[in-house]
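User: I would dearly like some help making sense of a protein record. This is the protein in question:
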Amino acid sequence: MLSEFKDFIAKGNVMDMAVGIIIGAAFTAIVSSLVADLINPIIGLFTGGLDFTNNYAVLAGDVPAGASLEAAREAGASVFAYGAFIMAIINFLIIAWVVFMLVRYVNKVKAAAEAPEEETPAEDPGPTELDILMEIRDSLAKAK
């Protein structure tokens, strides 16, 4: 059983999957930073500085006016955090778009690498074997 497990782990698909997961985790950090540090401020600019993350409705409990979502949760209030959900949807759409563009680019590169090269015609291939044999035959016929 140990040798079967060793064969399974050594297969290329498992190693490719492991590399994909590691790169995916690093890529998620990059895209999360892109969303939090670049995209959200631009969205906030168009919405008058509104940050969706702290938008919530209090379902039960007392929360001071203007308190952040984190402060409301720390106060023990039951909150409907629709702003955090909206930001999660925006983050998902941005991540999906970036992954789509990356896969599209990789597929173009892969297709270009797999495309058959066009055959270039030979400049002057010279006489064929049949041409040479015909010349020899003609030369022998003239010599007689």
